[in-house]
Amino acid sequence: MKNNLETLAPETGFETPVVFTEPESWHWKVLAKAFITDPTIKFWFDGKEDEDLLESFFEAVVKDVLMSGGTVFSSADRKAVFVWAWLGNTDQKANTFKEKWHGILGETGVKRYNWLYDAGNIHLDPDKVQKSMEPAYLAVLPEAQGRGYGSHLFKWTLDYFDRKGYDAPFILASTRRSAKLYCPLLGYDVCKEVFVNSNDTEPIGVFLKRKK
């Protein structure tokens, strides 16, 4: 199946986002540039990440997501990329790409990744999980940040899945600033802030739940 431009009405000031069913190399380049300073990524990689390592990591992530029923979107000008994972993928057999990004994270990184999601205490309705998606990685190139790319792409993709009958029951935000944006824009509430240490003042992740 070829990548395609879906004909849904664009919002003012932005062209309609592109829906990808096949990976393209610039996807992980954008993701790596955008996430190089992300606090959650730094926690998973223990501060050892660099752009080349993140490109390899996100290449495996994108290919794993597309193989596992997820979807990748971008702005029409390729300044923003959004990776959505399908939560209904209950097949525990690791494909080659999942094994690869696990290997890049390393044993400690995988433990930290799993610990963070466990600490979020997110419980999914088993009757609805087959129709549930996770907005996993939203990336905007540094030079394009602060211009509305992220909020437009997030709102558009959430509406896209709503139209298809899929829910996005939670969001993992990297910072309080992101959470503060997502809550009023998308209709979510803060569920739990996760701290690495009890005396930390900034969370390593903020879990949001969708309002019912």
UniProtKB/TrEMBL annotation:
Name the InterPro entries for this protein: Acyl_CoA_acyltransferase (IPR016181), GNAT_dom (IPR000182)
Q: Name one Pfam family in it.
A: Acetyltransf_1
What are the residue boundaries of the N-acetyltransferase domain, all occurrences included? 132-182
The UniProt entry, under Gene3D superfamilies, shows: 3.40.630.30
As given in the record, the signal peptide range reads: none
Its domain of life reads Bacteria
| CDD domains (UniProt xref) | NAT_SF (cd04301)
Task: State the protein's name.
Answer: GNAT family N-acetyltransferase
Q: Organism classification, top ranks?
A: Bacteria, Pseudomonadati, Bacteroidota, Flavobacteriia, Flavobacteriales
